[in-house]
């Protein structure tokens, strides 16, 4: 069976993966009957946010892998175990954890770095001609991962000017898309969609993620 990787960054949109985006990604992959392998880094979160109050909880610590296991129903692997040879594609749901735990864009902006294991996986995917999907804020991480390589991915985070400028500054190319739309970089086999970069309804986000998954799956069959 064809295998697709999904990389999570915790559990909760303010300090980990956006749960609805992650769940919709898994749902739409299941529609296609592919086998999904879920990964997350085994490291402490940058911070823990009380999602009721929207505030960081001082002195609190949680593990990214353990938190992401909540979404994956416990069936998850450490990011260090990801083997690109085993996958036909990799999808990155959004959430602020992408910018906090998978890279440090939230702290350092365009001077930040991607986790080495994930950066290597993304570059190896590209080298092997495999597909990549990036949702919500994740396209910034993709641009960061390919900085300085000569790869200039076409990406979307919707229409937020400052984040679009960051993608361009990192060497990517940004295009404006609506919440239900995707940006498709045919040369680099990268698909992205804005999702909750907009104040959107879950049905709209589902359409956009569904379109992204459809395109990723179609690339795996070429």
Note down, in words, how this protein is organized.
With 222 residues, this protein is of the alpha/beta class. The chain has a single domain (3-220), classed as Class I glutamine amidotransferase (GATase) domain (Rossmann fold), CATH 3.40.50.880. Helices cover 36% and strands 17% of the residues. It has eight helices and eleven strands. The chain has helices spanning 19-31, 64-71, 96-102, 105-108, 116-127, 138-145, 161-169, 202-220, and strands at residues 3-7, 35-40, 49-50, 55-56, 77-78, 89-92, 131-135, 154-155, 173-174, 183-185, 190-193. Strands 5-2-1-6-7-11-10 form a seven-stranded mixed β-sheet, with helices on both faces. β1, α1 and β2 (35-40) form a beta-alpha-beta unit. α1 (19-31) crosses α8 and α6 (138-145) runs parallel beside α7 (161-169). The longest helix is centred in the last third of the chain and has 19 residues, at 202-220. The model has no long low-confidence stretch (mean pLDDT 97).
Q: Helicity, in percent?
A: 25-40%
Shape: globular
Total number of domains: 1
How many strands in all? Answer: 11
User: Looking at this structure, what is the CATH superfamily?
Assistant: Class I glutamine amidotransferase (GATase) domain
Query: Which architecture name does CATH use?
Result: 3-Layer(aba) Sandwich
Biggest sheet details: 7 strands, mixed
- What is the name of the CATH topology? Rossmann fold
Supply the number of helical segments: 8
Give the helix/strand class.
alpha/beta
Residue-averaged pLDDT: 97
Order of helices and strands: EHEEEHEEHHHEHEHEEEH
Radius of gyration: 16 Å
Reading side by side through the largest sheet, how are the strands ordered?
5-2-1-6-7-11-10
User: What percentage of the residues does DSSP assign to strands (E)?
Assistant: 15-25%
Poorly predicted sequence stretches spanning 5 or more consecutive residues: none
Query: How widely separated are the two ends?
Result: 16 Å
């Amino acid at each position: 069976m064809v295998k697709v990787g999904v990389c999570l960054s915790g559990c909760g949109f303010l300090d980990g993966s956006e749960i609805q985006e992650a769940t919709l990604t898994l749902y739409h992959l299941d529609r296609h009957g592919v086998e999904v392998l879920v990964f997350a880094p085994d490291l402490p979160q940058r911070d823990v946010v009380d999602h009721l109050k929207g505030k960081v909880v001082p002195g609190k610590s949680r593990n990214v892998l353990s938190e992401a296991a909540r979404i994956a129903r416990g069936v998850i692997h450490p990011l260090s175990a990801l083997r690109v040879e085993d996958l036909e594609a990799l999808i990155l749901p959004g959430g602020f954890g992408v910018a906090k735990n998978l890279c440090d864009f939230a702290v350092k902006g365009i001077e930040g770095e991607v986790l080495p294991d994930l950066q290597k996986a993304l570059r190896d995917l590209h080298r092997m001609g495999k597909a990549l999907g990036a949702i919500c804020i994740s396209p910034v991480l993709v641009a960061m991962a390919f900085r300085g390589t000569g790869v200039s991915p076409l990406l979307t985070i919707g229409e937020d000017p400052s984040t679009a400028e960051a993608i361009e500054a990192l060497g990517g190319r940004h295009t404006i898309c609506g919440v239900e739309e995707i940006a498709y970089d045919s040369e680099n086999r990268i698909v992205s969609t804005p999702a909750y970069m907009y104040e959107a309804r879950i049905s709209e986000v589902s359409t956009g993620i569904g379109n992204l998954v459809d395109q990723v799956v179609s690339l795996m069959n070429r």
